[in-house]
Amino acid sequence: MNICMIGVGRMGRRHISAARAAGFHLAGVFDQSPDAIATTLVECAVDRSTVFDRAEEMLRAVRPSAVVVATTAPSHCRYVCAAAAAGVPYILCEKPMACSLEECDHMIATCDAAGVKLAINHQMRFMEQYTDVKNLTNSPEFGGLRSMVVTASNFGLAMNASHYFEAFRYLTAEPLAEISAWFDPANVPNPRGAQYIDRSGQVRGVTASGVRLLIELGGDLGHGIEVVYACRNGQILVDELAGYVRGIHRRAEYRELPTTRYGMPADEFQRQIAQADVIGPTVALWRSLLAGGSYPDGSSGRHAVAALVAANLSGESGGRPIELERGLPRERIFAWA
């Protein structure tokens, strides 16, 4: 199965590794940056004959079965739509899906009209740190997820918090209904370039049924990602970078007592899980996509972008709650990378 890569920066090179692990043949590579191409030729042992000067030329010449769009977000819409127009059956686009809701809608409509399967690389549903937690939180021992609290380093609202919007939707099987955000007064320079802006601060989201998502991504935080999943009967702590899980829950005979009885005798466990990884879950995404299974599609990517739009609007207005299904600006373009 031939695959082409549009964008071979750091993430694009990881996608090359994932594609090869999935059994694809790398048939074409494009990037506007000569430095990115030079690095890819050496780091990924790519044959120079597969390098093209223009993405559209590559799509016409190779006619691939699959394409990865791993450029920065401002060009996602252009390249996804070009691949769909070229008749590529499977497209995997990096997140955030686009820089506006209008672009998301155009990408979805273009792929639907062409009969193309579009996936967005929110690969959390294939990561043990989420699949394991979903099973635990839904178990009688823990009694259902009520809040997810992410304490992280300064990993960017669009760059990484968008992953948690999708992870939360996967874990709760509910979309976010409302977002509030409080931004740090100063922006930390974006490592992908001065033209990109990705805010830091705090975010609170809630579903229609009242399950909460809280993300601490302050600009003065420089290491680690830990998540606490609070349930009716217990809590689960996951250190995502270290691959560590600790769970504690009420013993069965105390589960029906009121929540105010928070200090009842409990059972506890600790164990290791797979550390946060990009390549393995992306391989799993490809396999599920090709097999007709569950994968993060365009609507999943659009939901994450809608949450980003709402968070930005809230942060700009000092934390005012913003509803995701009412009045979000479709045309406004944000400076995400």
Form type:
globular
Structural class: alpha/beta
End-to-end separation: 30 Å
Question: Can you list the strand order of the major beta sheet?
Answer: 13-12-11-10-6-9-8-7-14
Uncertain segments are none
> What fraction strand?
15-25%
Give me the strand/helix succession: EHEHHEHEHEHEHEEEEEEEHHE
Q: If you had to describe this structure to a student in words, what would you say it looks like?
A:
Helix 1 crosses helix 8 and helix 6 runs parallel beside helix 7. The chain is globular and about 65 Å long. The protein is about 35% helix and about 25% strand. About 40% of the residues are buried. The chain has a nine-stranded mixed β-sheet with strand order 13-12-11-10-6-9-8-7-14. Strands 2-1-3-4-5 form a five-stranded parallel β-sheet, with helices on both faces.
Task: Detail the topology: elements first, then pairings.
Blueprint: E1 2-6, H1 10-21, E2 25-30, H2 34-43, H3 55-62, E3 66-69, H4 76-85, E4 90-93, H5 101-114, E5 117-120, H6 128-137, E6 145-152, H7 157-172, E7 176-183, E8 201-207, E9 212-217, E10 225-231, E11 234-239, E12 244-250, E13 266-272, H8 279-290, H9 298-316, E14 322-323
Parallel strand pairs: 1-2, 1-3, 3-4, 4-5, 6-9
Antiparallel strand pairs: 6-10, 7-8, 7-14, 8-9, 10-11, 11-12, 12-13
Helix pairs in contact: 1-8, 4-5, 5-9, 6-7, 7-9
Keywords, separated by commas or semicolons:
337 residues; alpha/beta; nine-stranded mixed β-sheet; 9 helices; 33% helix; globular
Brief sketch in words of this structure:
The chain has 337 residues and is of the alpha/beta class. 33% of the residues lie in helices and 24% in strands. The longest helix has 19 residues, at 298-316.
